[in-house]
């Protein structure tokens, strides 16, 4: 018994020892493990509001000894010095987690060193992670990556302050807008790229000290200002550890600091300042400190040089050199580049380099991987010595003047090539695809567009080029058929064979390519049926442009499978049948062109449910039925932002009924504009304007369709009132149908409409008065209907020619006969019989009167003979005037008599003739030329009675006929105001158009301010203030007192004239209306005036507004304050006056804006600041934040209260009116 008891005791002792050893040997989670699990779960609760993949579903409170280290997603653990396991890393990359990020719980993990949350949707301002109090727990983090999230707000100065060991911080690709710099002494790598940072203090701090940073990336932010003369000035070059500095794609400006490279830290290997506004001549730039540089990127600035800076020759270790896009680098490619034995990437694109590619450059072939010399003026070809470039992968020589057979002899031997771009050169002969396929098997991109290549496209191309992704061969002379074997190119994404001479059908195999994104083959001779295999192996297709071929049959039903389609163009073929159902599935569709086919059936109502559609062209088909009201269903739903980034060309139809439709939209990548003249459509539909650009379209808020053409069909029924909801619609053509009913009054809601064609229908009723309020309307046609009633006198409707209202028997009013005359009939009145009885008694009186007339006629004949003699003498004088040399006038093509009258609006100028104008200007000689501009030349003319007038002789006037010109002049001639230059008269003779204006003694503000040699007066501040207020008053009258309001469209200092009292007179108002209809919306270059004055939104919406005029006025005001020109390369480089002034304001250097001659007194300088504030408000980038001109005048009025100025006395918009009683004589 005792023995057994002893044995049991020994057994219990042994178990106790084993348990003790086990407790020592196995790391236990204990309290610490529970705390880590609790911290992780606290982070999930606070920061993860959405976990769509269930990535963290496995996180649960630990119930084992391993705790979160067992199987928790993204958690990594490691043994610590005390033997326990602890969380050391958390990696939740790309898990689609979303929520407001709070890091406080994670900072409590004592062993967490690596935190990676990139690629999620966390948001917030990080303020909860900014504790720097003494109570904050110690933080072990070494590297933190929060990039590619949605973090916003400012970066707290104390962010991650407790993390004393932090070495790497990545906050790139967020939306941070400012804040303090998180410089811990231990930090070595900081990436803040692709945010919205603009804090100048933050920028300056990063350059000022000796922080120990090795990597600093501030690219793609909003930083402005200048770079310091040297980096880390408090550090010696040897002490600074900075190796990589990237400040590219910001808004920095000014001259490049002379010491930026020369005094660079010795460790600096990477320097990028690309995509800023740095300017200056770098011909002699000091590159003395570049010995260790491996990457130097100065691309896309405004740097100038007569040659590539020779100082670069000392940068022997360079691996990347990019000087592209500076535009002013000229001369030949220097041979010293051949000495860069380590160079892997050389980019000199987009400059003014000329001459041949030097043979010596082939010395780079040892390591060169990418060579980009595109968009220069290089000639010749690629030297034969480049055949030894066995590592070259990217070769871009596009946009030069290269020629010869270098593709076959040299390029085809570079077996390492992956990307080859040779478009827009002068390469001729058979297309080189066979030799390229044989010699360059790794090619992925081939671009040979816009050359003069001929021949057929080779079969089995992709058996030799299995990696081919993009094939661009547009605008050549290729013939034959589209090879069926292209369907074997499994990786092919983009095919562009447009503008060639290809025939046959499109192989079914191509339509079934699994990765196809762009299929562009317009303007060929392709025929047959479009294969019904679209998107059969994938839905990647975005662009389908095969218009202007000879395709027949129906639109393939499979098109609705391509749910990513953005641009569909099947126009100009011979397609039949109806539009297949299912287009509602194409929610990304932006442009649909089915015009000029033989399609039938109804217009699909479901197209109105395509929420991205902005361009719908169905003209010239056989559609019947009614216009579905649902077409306007997308109004207010089209989202803002980029619709598509494809290049386009728009040919406007200016031939009326000769050519159907409002115009033609083309995909225009890789096409030379001059080749477009050879396109048959141009000859069938003559056009004077081609608009080119990219189909990027943005709306300030949700928008609507911008182009709708349903003309030349058989549509019936009323026009849906819902179409009036499309507030962004710019072109609507419903003409040449069989529509009936009335014009919807709701069309007054088409606030952006520029062209409205309802002609050749069966419309009845009147023209709604609300159409007079459509201020952008520049082309209006309701001819050939059954309309009746008066043409509304408000707005611009009375300025259109009679032809736009023709064949509406019931219409009356300007420009048609008056309504009272139109209502007179042929039924005799009750008193007509009484009048007949009086006729007999009048006979005797008539006889006596006839005798008197005969006597007067004899007197008149004598006077006529005398006047004829006088006219012959005048004509002899006119014909003796010079017609060459200093004369700018040519009488060729003028068949009217020189005695033709000038239509005048002023009584003193009555009986003025064209001959008088010729005589007064000495035949429009150069001696009388006093100015010229976008609309014509201006001559000074002194008439015989001593009156001095200015005569504008319009140039390039091809837009309108006599009736439209006359109607426009009649409208402008009625506008009278003390701050507008009045139109006194006009004259039409032959193809010429002359406008007579009141002469302004001191000429234009532009000359007085900026051309001291020609200026007749010097402007002090009092004079400039008077001019600022006067020009604002004139512009305010145009905007607010004219009905409809007049948008100037070209407000600038040269259109502000000064009379003898230095009173400002705004000129050229209304002149833009002499341009044609679509200019208002589709062409910034043709109407939106002068560089330096154009508001930024014109380049996005292509719409002119009164707020655009306000912006341009702000530039004029800035000119008055600064005395500087809006654009001056010597002063601003690639920047302009507005950008420079805004930068000065931002840097608290506003005093540098003012003309030094104006800052004489403190009180005067204070007033300058007030006027500068008004200018800045006018120059706000956001149109809705700019004041109206009425508000500008009110601000001036407030400033006047503290002064004795009387410039604003009596100001009232209502006191100035359009002079409706202005007389005209001819």
From TrEMBL:
Residues 1-27 form the signal peptide. This is non-specific serine/threonine protein kinase. ATP binds at residue 953. It is an enzyme of class 2 (transferase). InterPro entries: BRI1_island_dom, Kinase-like_dom_sf, Leu-rich_rpt, Leu-rich_rpt_typical-subtyp, LRR_dom_sf, LRR_N_plant-typ, Prot_kinase_dom, Protein_kinase_ATP_BS. Belongs to the RLP family. Belongs to the protein kinase superfamily. Ser/Thr protein kinase family. It is a single-pass type I membrane protein.
